[in-house]
Amino acid sequence: MKKLIIMLSTALMLGGIASAQKIAFEEYDLDNGMHVILHNDPSAPVVVTSVMYHVGSKDETPDRTGFAHFFEHLLFEGTENIKRGEWFKIVTSNGGINNANTSDDRTYYYEVFPSNNLELALWMESERLMHPVINKIGVDTQNGVIKEEKRSRFDNQPYGNIIGAVKENIFKNHPYRWTTIGSMEHLDAATLEEFQAFNKKFYIPNNAVLVVAGDFEKTKAKEWIQNYFGLIQKGKEIKKQTFVEEPITQTIRATYEDPNIQIPMVVATYRTPSMKTRDARVLDLISSYLSDGKSSKLYKKIVDDKKMALQIDAVGLNQEDYGMYILYGLPMETHTSADLIKEIDEEIVKIQTELISEKNFQKLKNTFDNRFVNKNATLEGIAENLATYYLLYGDVHLINTEIDLFHSITREEIRDVANKYLNPNQRLILDYVPSKAEARN
């Protein structure tokens, strides 16, 4: 009884926090098609300015991969009014920080400044959009930077190419089949004109959302936004191609050799639907239940109790068109990859045939309530979430309401969705092993 009271109290507390954290915002469009979202929070004298472009690695062609990520680097090189090498100096000398990141679906840039530098941030992002300098010296410089990034983060990192190995086997038609960092050979072969054409096609106001979040005066912010972005010419409409993957109807088996490892890893991956769907959210709950941390079903069973693996874990990649639920484990010497898969399958079958307990169901809800609060705990997080919900989900109001969707999921849905997507004939089994040369040494 005491445990039940504590559980209910926790749920009520988290629910209260979630309600109190409602994010207020205003959104509108400029005449050139750029979407603008404003979130005012005067609690600290800080302002975040960010721009998300609807361009990621899925917008590349098979013989020119890596362009979207390349531009994440290239567009810090300078503009007609910001000299090469000056971008970061301007930011730091004015008390700010900035960064950018790329996914398969979008590219995101942001600055965090003291509130009195909002105009500077808006000018700099408008410069990136309107006056980028894309020349040979910048392309050559960033080509070298990205090659080093690939070597350090992927090629020379133990287990560094797992995601790439999974993607190339589970996607046959969709551009998700290649990695975001792309091919160095493709970047080497690309001409300057190709880079300039990519910029002209995707870096346009009607393919972007601008977010300002923090302490600012709204009337003045709107005036500056109009002055710096409103006069930028609207770009040609982008016609996005639709790529459809046929359902997986029999187990895909593949092997990847990694010279940087000594312990083999087994990877079981299920292709999942678009993150915008209800089923994707149900699968998020299933993933958390099975494989989220050391208290999860799989970790407690396989690592703690049976001591069959050094590690068992998972990652869920939720994306605009398709997602992936990737389970991976490192078998102990006396056990095989097949042993781990057998144990995983047993737990999945339990979800498919039995309703999870009310206690575990409530624990899941508490976990997702906590995540919801944490996602919006910082201005940087709020700014990125506002941009993401607008650009990729098509509904910025989800920043406040998505938790209600999770709350509406039932235990019966968890069982049914597990039956729909998590079957042995619907997955990839990847043996990620030491290279044969390494094994001989």
UniProtKB/TrEMBL annotation:
InterPro entries: Metalloenz_LuxS/M16 (IPR011249), Pept_M16_N (IPR011765), Peptidase_M16 (IPR050626), Peptidase_M16_C (IPR007863)
Span of domain Peptidase M16 C-terminal: 190-367
Domain Peptidase M16 N-terminal: residue ranges: 36-179
Alphabetic keyword roster: Hydrolase, Metalloprotease, Protease, Signal, Zinc
Pfam family, one: Peptidase_M16_C
Signal sequence residues: 1-20
Protein's UniProt keywords contain Repeat: no
Source species, domain of life: Bacteria
Protein transport found in the keyword field: no
Record-linked Gene3D superfamilies: Metalloenzyme, LuxS/M16 peptidase-like
Protein family per UniProt: Belongs to the peptidase M16 family.
Protein name: Insulinase family protein
Organism: Flavobacterium gawalongense
